[in-house]
Amino acid sequence: MTSKVALLLLTVSFFFLTLTAAFSTTTTTTSTTITNTNTKTTSSSAFINQQSCQPRRSVVLFSTAPSSTSEAAASSSKNKNQQQRPDVITLKSNNISEQILNRIRTDSSKLGKEYAETFGLDEDEEEVEQYTSAGLYAVLDSIKTTLQPIDGLGLSGHPFLLRKNELESSMMIEEEILLFDGFYTMKDLKQALIDDFLDASRGSTDNRKGWSIQPVSTPTGDSFEEARMTYDDVLIALEKGTVIFNAFGAHVPKLAGPCLAVTDATDTPNAVNLYVTSYGKKTSAPPHTDKQDVIVIQTNGCKRWRVYKPPSSTIKPMSDVFARGKGIDNLPLHVLEEEENNANGGSDDKNLLLETELNPGDVLFIPAGFPHTTSTTGFNNEDDDDNDSDGDKTSVHLTFNIDTRVWELDYLNARRLALRRANIIDKALGQSRDEDNVYIGRVNELPKEIHTDLLKEFPLGFLNDNGEDASLSSVDTVTTELKRIAHAVDEDTFNSVEESIWKETIEKLKQEGQEYLDIHRDMYIAAIEEGRTRKAERTMKAHLNSDTDDNQSNKKVQLTPDQIQRLSLFRVQKYYEKIKTVKTDLLKWSYEASDKKTAPQQALPDNWAYVMPIRVNDEVEADLGGAFFPATITKVLTNGLYDVKFFDGDVEDGMERNLIKLLKPPSTADTTGNGDNNDGDDDGIDTSNMTPKQLKRWKKAQQKKN
């Protein structure tokens, strides 16, 4: 079993602390069709077939096109083009795009080029000159400086689109130089799988159910090589759904430079996910929302996107607004479409905010919490026999995540930390335990304006003391905003917190955030250096390789011991451990005051992880053959022993306490280990997040059980 678990741990480590992963209007009158006057005409190639997609159609504001259900019933092979859904975009989206492009043209383009030149980020491309890192820095710098002053991110934001030719014109680059078109293709993915030990997930495709994922491959034997995922594994998975590589920039050197550019442009730790979808999928991702604001870069093939208005949080308060349509939560497409069709006609009533095809080189921005769904069907050239190359038609896009909420850089998490620091029970929202999801429960029953403000992220640039708009993101500015929002949520709770604690909390979050930022920078720089080393090795061995690229890409290449030691799996681990240390430090800091006030003589001992009480369902690491593996407590025995279930499903009964490592200090509400909790029952069930109706239902269930 040890070898099996060790192999699986290699896979699990890839996703360690990838906390999101992959799992992202102006009034008008009647439906109006307009041509896109912003489209540049500098190159006629911008309007012709880009790999597999036909020219962009006219933009339609608040289209009254029939729903997908009625389309399916009316469609036939003879008139597919006539039955296609037209593009939809709002005037607000167009206005934002114009502002972003203008900022790129006047300032951000120069900054991006200077930045990429300083770090040598766009100098390693062999086949064609490309300004990918420079372009990403420019786009994100423009987003930060344009949207931040108007609260244009998160639930207050709005989706918008930047077309390839518009971007290239604004960047003022020569025609033969590319930004994002063709930057990462299936050929690059083949090479990445040859060079490294990578893992991926495959997403479900049922648009009536929540988006779920499962592994693309599993180890076929006990050896290292038998545990590696191959390109063929990816191709097989593509037949069933979208293949997702989470936090890919930390592992793949070619993507590390763009990740570094996004990190420095936004002053925020970020990650990039890679999504690969075969041509012809009616649903490549069911409707869902994401915790991050995302920037989607289409690099190969085409994909059709629909972005909708966020549903009201009061409809399903026990659902995470930033994880709707994921796992067991359903956000069916037909519900979003029905709401669209039932709208009265005004712009504020319309549910569908944007629908379009992304071609290679196009960029799409989707704010956190906005439902979106994708497909790889319905293009203008669906029956075009001239485009039959699977490599061209496969959709490849990169999603860069602005990970503010992942690192608790938002006002909801800041309020929670401040209350914990002050040792104040949160009677308004009931977020009492550290393991509680802060984005569900009574928080979603707040008035819309307060709810939106509370879930708002800190300004981009908060972690940078020398930003252009430092006044908008200073500690004092963010502290003032936190106090305003906390007072609006619940005045009594707000008045119970000492004045100094609000600022202390913001200062601590900034300190921890800057550490996260430095760790991410170091991680991406290490990946860049590894890429240069690999390039030098390939150059030295090029004359020895007689296989064609295709033959070599479809088989596993034996790695040398030195190459194995340099695999990203091992390279990134030390950075993930540093991240874990920072998170633990923040957690301890938040509990310091409560420890001093309630039981100063019971401060956490150095070995608290091995001696403090544990309960059923606690997430732990348990010893198995001298190594610790992720596990969950399944039973607390009367003789002081514990039954655990490991991450791979195996169980171990009767383990001693010193063989189990607790990952988080026990809640200050319960340090006895018997599950007693003022907010719950004898089983340690926290009811503080339940609505009155849910609490009543739960009590009835307890009475029946007893």
UniProtKB/TrEMBL annotation:
<keyword id="KW-0804">Transcription</keyword>
<keyword id="KW-0560">Oxidoreductase</keyword>
<protein>
    <recommendedName>
        <fullName>Bifunctional lysine-specific demethylase and histidyl-hydroxylase</fullName>
        <ecNumber>1.14.11.-</ecNumber>
    </recommendedName>
</protein>
<feature type="signal peptide">
    <location>
        <begin position="1"/>
        <end position="22"/>
    </location>
</feature>
<keyword id="KW-0732">Signal</keyword>
<dbReference type="InterPro" id="IPR003347">
    <property type="entry name" value="JmjC_dom"/>
</dbReference>
<keyword id="KW-0479">Metal-binding</keyword>
<dbReference type="GO" id="GO:0005506">
    <property type="term" value="F:iron ion binding"/>
</dbReference>
<keyword id="KW-0539">Nucleus</keyword>
<keyword id="KW-0805">Transcription regulation</keyword>
<feature type="compositionally biased region" description="Low complexity">
    <location>
        <begin position="668"/>
        <end position="677"/>
    </location>
</feature>
<dbReference type="GO" id="GO:0032453">
    <property type="term" value="F:histone H3K4 demethylase activity"/>
</dbReference>
<feature type="region of interest" description="Disordered">
    <location>
        <begin position="663"/>
        <end position="706"/>
    </location>
</feature>
<dbReference type="Pfam" id="PF08007">
    <property type="entry name" value="JmjC_2"/>
</dbReference>
<keyword id="KW-0223">Dioxygenase</keyword>
<feature type="compositionally biased region" description="Basic residues">
    <location>
        <begin position="694"/>
        <end position="706"/>
    </location>
</feature>
<feature type="domain" description="JmjC">
    <location>
        <begin position="241"/>
        <end position="419"/>
    </location>
</feature>
<dbReference type="GO" id="GO:0051864">
    <property type="term" value="F:histone H3K36 demethylase activity"/>
</dbReference>
<keyword id="KW-0408">Iron</keyword>
<dbReference type="GO" id="GO:0005730">
    <property type="term" value="C:nucleolus"/>
</dbReference>
<dbReference type="InterPro" id="IPR039994">
    <property type="entry name" value="NO66-like"/>
</dbReference>
<comment type="function">
    <text>Oxygenase that can act as both a histone lysine demethylase and a ribosomal histidine hydroxylase.</text>
</comment>
<comment type="similarity">
    <text>Belongs to the ROX family.</text>
</comment>
